[in-house]
Amino acid sequence: MDQAIVNPKINMESAVHEAQTVQNEETEERKAFRRKRVKRIKLFLIILLILFILIPNLFCAFLLYKMNQMNKNIDSLKEEIKLSQEEIERRTKQSGSALDTDENTKDSDTQLYELEQQHLTDEEKYPGMQLVYLTFDDGPSKYTDEILDILSEHEVKATFFTIGKEGYDDQYKRIVAEGHTLGMHSFSHKYSSIYASLDAFAEDVSSIASFLEERTGIRPTYYRFPGGSSNKVSKVPAQDMIHYLSENGYVYYDWNVSSEDAASAMKEANVIVKNVVNGVGNKTTAVVLMHDAASKRSTVEALPIIIETLQKKGNVVFLPITEGTKQIYHVKEKETGQTQDAEETVETEEIEETE
Ligand SMILES: [Zn+2]
Q1: Residue 294 Cα, ligand 1 centroid: separation in angstroms?
Q2: What are 305-351's pLDDT values in tens digits?
């Protein structure tokens, strides 16, 4: 019985021991499995890290490569452009004498044509037409707005050779804004001071140029001598003044048609019309002298009739003086400094001081 009691105890202990052994073995296995997992995760993380470092670097390298290629492309394009420009310059230089050469020059011919278009004279722009340049000296005046209204109604552009006057800022601005040419006719219009010396003349020119630029924002280019370039009042030789204008980038215009509205007694409007229409005659370029002054009411009356009469001829175009306008002068600029009268016989502006 005792043995029977002892034996089961022993059996139980060995069973427990056995169970523990099994359990230990299982734990070992699980540990090994976990270690393997941890190793795998570590490996995965390391690969991930390498990829994170590697991919952007590869991408950067790729971008650098691309950039390098693009730079090369840009360089070769620059080179091509440079060669094209050189070719264009070469062809433009040649084309003056090469209008009759082979078809390869077609491109340069087109380019030359475009260049010429920009520098065409008015006579070239309007072949077969009579070009009439209405010019108004001595303004602004109380009639400036009325003259501008008449020009606007008839869609005609003209040139105003103005002097320096306070209180007419709107008129100076309006002349420019409405597409007319704002020229200079001296600042003071006082012959005795303007023509006293070359310095006095130069000072007066620069005064009117600055005065007009301050009011309109545009530096004027065109000048008309009070009394014309051939006036007999000036103590300074005309060539000296012409040389000064030319040196300073100014271009002077006299006239080849006079309305004769400067005469001291006011001319009838119909006389002014007749003078202008007859004066224009068959001239290809007619620069018409008129006045914008408080004493010249009949000029304002004559203006619409002049425009309408000339427009009826059908081949007349009214233009403002610009760089394409043929220069009309009484005294020509000479390199030698010798005064020479122009061939055309013209009347000079009546010598008078308007102020
Ligand atoms: Zn004048």
Answers
A1: 13
A2: 999 999 999 999 999 999 999 999 999 988 654 444 444 434 445 44
- Angle, CA of 187, 193 and 199, to the nearest 5°: 85
CA of 293 to the centre of ligand 1 (A): 9
Q: What's the 185 CA to ligand 1 centre distance in angstroms?
A: 7
Quote the ligand 1 centre to 289 CA distance (angstroms): 10
pTM score: 0.66
Cis amide leading into 226 (omega within 30): no
What span, in angstroms and rounded, lies between the C-alpha atoms of 79 and 82? 5
Which phi and psi (to 5°) does residue 79 adopt?
Answer: -60, -40
Q: Which of 18-27, 265-274, 340-349 ranks highest by mean pLDDT? A: 265-274
What's the CATH class of domain 128-318?
alpha beta
Strands 181-184 and 130-137: unpaired
Tell me which amino acid residue 257 is: V
DSSP code for 266: P
CA-based nearest residue to 184, from 175, 193, 192: 175
**Backbone conformation region of residue 219, classed left if phi is above 0, alpha if psi is from -120 to 50, else beta:** beta
Listed by start position, the domains of the chain span 1-119, 128-318
By annotation, the residues acting in catalysis are 137, 291
C-alpha span between 128 and 114 (Å, rounded): 21
